[in-house]
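Hello Y.,

Per our agreement to keep a running log of every chain we model this quarter, I'm adding this entry. I've kept the format consistent with earlier entries: sequence first, then predicted structure.
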Amino acid sequence: QLFVREEYETLGSSVRELDSKGLIKGHFVLIYGDCVGNLNLNELLAIHKENVKKDPGCVMTNIYRRTHPNHRIRHNNQETCLLLDPQSKIIFYDNSNSSSIGLPKELLEETACSIHYDLLDTFVSICSNKVPPDFSDNFDYESRDDFLHGLLASVDLLQHFVYAYILEDGDAARVSNVSTYDSVSRDLIQRFAYPISPDSETD
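Predicted structure for the entry above:
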């Protein structure tokens, strides 16, 4: 089914509309239409389900790929800092593109964690059916970033968590502006997203 309405101006309004129709009954893939990649979504769905099995509070698994901070694909709105616990639960998230980041001291003292500044957000997320009601309950959630920041701010109340999965292979990125169009095009030419390549055959 395809739903199109002029009122769908944000991710939040779209998800709330789907929730009001009661269409999402189980786990689902949240992905932007401008995403280009060669990811195996069935494998990622299985990884998310395993996260939920281990932690029923897991409502979303975000997919990241390792990328050097100076890589061409990383532009001015792709500077992401994550703190992950040993189970890859996101306990701190910052994408403010600031020249400095303030890390909560208590997180570093109380939790064994790893700090990542070498990750590119693919903007592919595997979600549970708890995500749409969370958007419906919080009308200030208009983007996935709003959702993640909101869960981290109210973690003690909601007990809903987002996990990170770092790709070992595969490629995905959004083509959201001229800079990323150039970068993704170069990746395709260099066959990083194989079998998606300029010389691939199409029926």
